[in-house]
């Protein structure tokens, strides 16, 4: 489908990142509509992206090829149950919600084609990475449609088991926050070492960008790139030793396990 119409249900952080990325990629404003109960949110989205907005989810989904469910998991059941009678045959549901399984969406929406997707907010800059899982009703054309949507805002990969979406959340869905935390901490520490806050922030952010770009394009892994920065007896060695002795690897593993466990817990609590 060359010019699909896409309705966003919920126009908050994640929807805005996707909308911004789609428009930057060349989607037309008249292909997109966003529905949200918040008047301020609708004004912001209309002003920022010049797309149609509404507070009526039923109006948003009428005629849409793809319906992106981008509300908080806590309201997903009510949103879906209200939306179910408004859906037409052939529409593809793309849910970006953490912790809401396909089976729950099918229970609330009926016999629908669902792609469960875990994107991340760098989609706004078309630097997103998404994990996708399709239920059995998704046709090959609809798979291609989901790929067109998420491919417009970054890269994507399909997982063959739905449970792996929780692992995707732990790595990349929530992952930007881990790197932002690192940037905050490096900025603070740089400022304490005497740099201006602005300079410390610039150095930290561009270092993150450069390291990621280098790691993506290198023909060796991150461990080898790290070793190449770490001169024996030099400065980096002291920093890395401090991280290792402080248990950074264990901490990262624990954090990601807790993240995935929370997604599973949400499925128990909110998916009924
Ligand atoms: N933020 C992220 O980095 C990521 C988020 N996600 C998923 O995206 C989803 C949305 O998260 P996020 O964008 O951060 O949350 P936000 O709160 O920023 O956005 C959700 C929006 O939905 C609106 N909303 C509430 N009720 C309804 C309704 N009945 N109909 C339509 N819209 C409604 C909310 O309005 P109001 O505020 O007035 O309630 C809010 O504007 C979540 O399910 C989350 O798991 C996935 C990947 C990454
Ligand atoms: O924190 C959350 O629950 C959402 C899902 C992944 C990123 N943000």
TrEMBL record:
It comes from Atopomonas hussainii. It is found in: Cytoplasm. NADPH binds at residue 57. The gene is proC. This is Pyrroline-5-carboxylate reductase. Residues 6-99 form the Pyrroline-5-carboxylate reductase catalytic N-terminal domain. GO terms for molecular function: pyrroline-5-carboxylate reductase activity. Pathway: Amino-acid biosynthesis; L-proline biosynthesis; L-proline from L-glutamate 5-semialdehyde: step 1/1. Its EC number is 1.5.1.2.
């Amino acid at each position: 489908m060359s010019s699909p119409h896409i309705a966003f249900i919920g126009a908050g952080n994640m929807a805005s990142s996707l909308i911004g990325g789609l428009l930057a990629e060349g989607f037309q404003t008249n292909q997109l509509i966003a529905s949200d109960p918040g008047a301020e949110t609708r004004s912001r989205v209309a002003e920022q992206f010049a797309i149609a907005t509404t507070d009526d989810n039923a109006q948003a989904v009428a005629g849409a090829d793809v319906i992106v469910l981008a509300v908080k998991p806590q309201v997903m059941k009510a949103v879906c149950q209200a939306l179910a009678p408004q859906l037409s045959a052939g529409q593809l549901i793309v849910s970006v919600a953490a912790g809401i399984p396909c089976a729950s969406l099918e229970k609330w929406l009926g016999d629908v084609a669902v792609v469960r997707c875990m994107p991340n907010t760098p989609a706004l800059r078309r630097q997103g990475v998404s994990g996708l899982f399709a239920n059995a009703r998704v046709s090959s054309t609809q798979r291609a449609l989901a790929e067109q949507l998420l491919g417009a805002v970054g890269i994507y990969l399909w997982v063959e088991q739905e449970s792996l979406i929780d692992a995707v959340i732990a790595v990349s869905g929530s992952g930007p926050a881990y790197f932002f935390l690192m940037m905050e901490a490096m900025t603070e520490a740089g400022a304490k070492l005497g740099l201006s806050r602005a300079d410390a922030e610039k150095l930290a952010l561009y270092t993150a960008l450069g390291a990621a770009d280098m790691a993506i394009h290198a023909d060796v892994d991150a461990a080898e790139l790290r070793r190449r920065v770490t001169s024996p007896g030099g400065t980096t060695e002291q920093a890395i030793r401090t991280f290792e002795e402080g248990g950074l690897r264990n901490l990262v593993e624990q954090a990601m396990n807790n993240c995935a466990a929370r997604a599973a817990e949400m499925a128990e609590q909110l998916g009924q």
